[in-house]
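Re-run with default settings, no changes from the original entry. Doing this only to confirm the output is reproducible before filing.
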Amino acid sequence: MASIKEMVDVNTIVGDPVETPDGTVIIPISRVTFGFAAGGGDYEPEEVESNEVVQSFGGGSGAGVSVKPVGFLVCSPVNGVRFMPVDGDLLLDRVIDMVPKVLNKLQEMIQDKEEDKQLDALAETAETQYKHQEQRV
C-alpha cells in the first residue's frame, strides 16, 4: 500500500512546471489509471479418503497502472492560459480556444459602435449650437 500512495501523488497527474526564458510556464498533465483484481474459490477434490481433511483453495490477484500524457497547460503572459492536448482533434481544440477571443472582439465592436453613436450625437449637438450662435449674430 505504501508504494501505491507514492504513485498517487498529485505530481504524477499535474507535473512540475517548467518556465521558459520569455516567462511562459508549461505544466504537463497526465491521466493515471489504476486497476486491481482478486479472486478465489474453493473446490472439492474428486477422490478423498474418509479420514483425510482436505482444504482446496485456488486464488489469485493482480494490479495494473497506466500513466498517459494528456497535454500541457501553457500559461503565457502574451496569450494567456491555454491547454494544448497531446492528441485529439486539434481543429476543434483551436476553435474552442478561440471562442473567448472572438467574444471579446464582438464586445469591443459593439462598444465602439455605441461610442461612435454618442460621438455623432455630440457632434450634431455642437453643430446645432454653432448654427444657433451664427443666427443670433
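The mean pLDDT is 79. The beta strands are 18-19, 25-42, 57-76, 80-85.
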